[in-house]
Amino acid sequence: PKMFMCHGGRDPLVDFAWGKRTFENLKSLGVEAEFHKFDNLFHEINKSELQKLRDWISATVPADS
């Protein structure tokens, strides 16, 4: 399955390196994944991240689903 991952560059709860390492491990296992870093984001979500997710869903999920 495809996977969409985002991580805040200033996340105090989940270390950025852990998120990136998880992504790399998944890729090495054959998971088709995208990873997006949001430099000034903490452990939260913002409009820019939601827009990227929306675009990814539109490109990934068939329109008749």
From TrEMBL:
Keywords: Hydrolase
Family annotation (Gene3D superfamilies): alpha/beta hydrolase
Record-annotated Phospholipase/carboxylesterase/thioesterase domain positions: 3-60
EC number: 3.1.2.22
Top EC category: hydrolase
Cross-referenced InterPro entries: AB_hydrolase_fold, LYPA1-2/EST-like, PLipase/COase/thioEstase
One annotated GO molecular function: carboxylic ester hydrolase activity
GO CC, one annotated term: cytoplasm
Xref: SUPFAM superfamilies: alpha/beta-Hydrolases
Membership in a protein family: Belongs to the AB hydrolase superfamily. AB hydrolase 2 family.
Protein name in the entry: palmitoyl-protein hydrolase
